[in-house]
Amino acid sequence: MFKKIIFYTILFVLAYGFWISPDFKEISAGVAIFLFGMLSLEEGFKTFTGGLLEKLLRKTTDGTWKSLSFGIVSTTVMQSSSLVSVITISFLSAGLIGLTAGIGIIFGANLGTTTGAWLIAGLGMKVKISAYAMPMLVFGIIGIFQKSRNLRGIGYILAGLGFLFLGIHHMKEGFEAFRDTIDLTAFAVEGYPGILLFTLIGVAATVIMQSSHATLVIIITALASQQITYENALALAIGANIGTTITAIIGSMSANVQGKRLAAAHLVFNMVTAIIAIGFIYQIADSVDWISSVVGIAEDDYTLKLAVFHSVFNTIGIVAMLPFIKRLADTLHSMMPEKLAAKEQPMYLNESAEELPDTAIEAVRKETLHLYDNAFAIIAHGLSLHRDDILSDRDLEAIIYESNKVIEIDLDQEYEASVKGLYAEIVRFISRSQVSMEPAQVDELFALRAAGRDIVEAIKDTKHMHKNMSQFIVSENSYIRDEYNKIRLRLGHLMRNLAIIREEGDDPSMILSLDNLKLEMEQNDTTVNGMLESLIRDEKISAQMATSLMNDANYAYDVTKNLIRMGEALFATSDFDMKQAERDIALTDDELADILNEESGS
Amino acid sequence: MKTPKLLKLSKEALNDEKSKIYRKKSCLKELQLKLKKKHKKLKEKTQNEKDSKEQKKLENEIKIVTAQRRKIIKVLKSL
Q1: In the prediction, which pLDDT does A141 show?
Q2: Alpha carbons A439 and A357: distance in angstroms, whole number
Q3: Calpha distance A176→A185 (Å, rounded)
Q4: Which of A151, A515, A523 sits opposite B64 (nearest CB)?
Q5: What domains are there in chain A, each with its CATH number?
Q6: Among partner residues B15, B38, B72, which is closest to A585 by beta-carbon distance?
Q7: Which residues of A fall within a CB distance of 8 Å from B21?
Q8: I need a surface site. Which of A268, A548, A590, B60 has the fewest CB within 10 A?
């Protein structure tokens, strides 16, 4: 209700403003065009985030300086600290980067965003940038209509820049015309009350527009046309810096606790920086004067001096906060603890992971691995094996033959409790997030969904085997007992090997080792059939035992097939192209049959 | 960098299909190298293995790696 009142009040104030002042209309239109340009620019950069940004982010997680530099460079290039914040939260939520690296990126983004003030003050106010806007818009829109993804991305970026320039032009024109009718400097407030008041105005303006860049453009254009004093402009810039954290806070609302921690770190950083900047505003302004005289900025060039101020106080913030980055991360960890999610609750699927196709895919992959972890325990217990024994390096054969104690487990209940709900959440997330994806990315999501189905099938097959297995591994007939123990051993080995391949997922050749497991599966199938024939022929087992064994050998074969297929889709962590290459090189059933035939022939 | 070369590079970067093939080739070459090393390692392991069952397993792995390496060459040739 409150939101609605605010919304309609803003609309009414704007409409009234347009009615009484055409200049105000031009300034507001400038802001609107500028914001539209930001959206278009973000859309363009999102096109290029696939793969490249992920690769870069992986490399920035190993050091504070690297993540800081990444934040500076990416924000300078994309000209949007909000986009960098949202992407960072999204990567953090999907578990692609750690909190310390995320904080480093956010600190860097704060400095990177100050390049915007330089561009606007240095270029926007001195050159007639609207002249560049027109061709950019034309080429940009032509690009947007192209089929090629890259050309479309470039088109969005060009159109975005064009709109940004056009917006700045209209704001500049509006303020210059405004100067002739009204003098806003009459409302200037001197001293600290003025600083605090204008800081609050800066916060409010940025919260409303959701863009510190837009606030800065208004400040700089108003300053250039002498509608606000230099001192008040400095306070507005400080306010814009605090206001920009609102975007990150809103972005983190739908994120998991990691994203919320990052938004809190962002707020802490910007608040500390603002307190320092307000407390030492006159000293910082003096240092800005000194820096300006050193680099040759004219004494009355207040727009460029504002850009210097913006960079200086953000640098001070980084210098002040950088030594505490790890402590800040630790404090946030203890203040915002991770709620221990129930086994059946999703850990990675949240709205912020949906922001980018790549993070959505990664979140689904990790969640399906979580599903597999839950299924692993069920399958292991279904085979009367302990999870830890499978994952250890102890001799599995010895473990199985030493202890044939049946583990009592209600597989249906376990499936309902820790798999069914989670699988349903994964399927729901996939249906929701595939809407804005490229066909290849949708295929990847479908492959992951199929992996989830394979896991569920493997549990169901284990359930079918369970009754007979519980009966025959303690049977007095040593032949049938041996055969069922062999099934347990083969499946135990398979699960152990899958765990090894999963751990080495970064090495692309490891995924191809799954072909060995496929070959072993086929060889075992042939051996089991041969053995079954001889056991029946020699009357070592009863006919009823034989049918049970025959059925269960088939179920074991299906469990193996399903788990290997799941591994192929789930364990590859390399980039998209490498995954495709791995799938191309994995051997087909016919190629494996050729190797088997070659072997039986020799 | 000379202008024609720069133009060619940017043209390739903008051509989705060509850049896809280029990326695929480089991935396959990386895999080829990894499998070559794996093949060598497996051969050494087989020679030192005394247990015949384990030796048989390693030989199977070699067969798989060999088939995969052949497949890479075939795919690379087709690109």
Answers
A1: 92
A2: 11
A3: 13
A4: A515
A5: 25-335 (no CATH), 351-601 (1.20.58)
A6: B72
A7: none
A8: A590
Q: Which residue of A has its CA nearest to B12?
A: A150
The pLDDT value recorded for residue A55 is 65
Q: How far apart are CA A63 and CA A109, in angstroms?
A: 16
Model pLDDT for residues A166-183, shown as the tens digit of each residue: 887 887 777 777 666 656
Mind listing the pLDDT tens digit for each residue in A451-500?
A: 999 999 999 999 999 988 888 888 888 888 888 999 999 999 999 999 99
Helix (H, G, I), strand (E, B) or coil at A31: helix
Chain B residues close to A515, C-beta within 8 Å: 64, 68
Q: What's the CA gap between A416 and A395, in Å, rounded? A: 32
Q: Is B27 on the interface with A (CB under 8 A)?
A: yes
CA distance, residue B49 to nearest chain A CA (Å): 18
CB A139 within 8 A of CB A298: no
Distance, in Å, from the CA atom of A231 to the CA atom of A438, rounded to the nearest integer, reads 49
With a cut of 60, say whether residue A407 has pLDDT above it. yes
Nearest to A508 among B16, B31, B67 (CB): B31
CA end-to-end span of chain B, whole Å? 27
**Low-confidence winner among A31-35, A430-434, A514-518, A572-576 (lowest mean pLDDT):** A572-576
User: Which amino acid is it at A469?
Assistant: M
Q: Tell me which chain A residues have a C-beta less than 8 angstroms from the C-beta of B13.
A: 150
Contacts of B12 (CB under 8 A, 6+ apart): B18, B19, B22
SS3 content of chain B, % helix, strand, coil (to 5): 90, 0, 10
The DSSP 8-state label assigned to residue A587 in this structure reads P
Q: What is the ipTM of this complex?
A: 0.82
CA–CA min distance B5, chain A (Å): 20
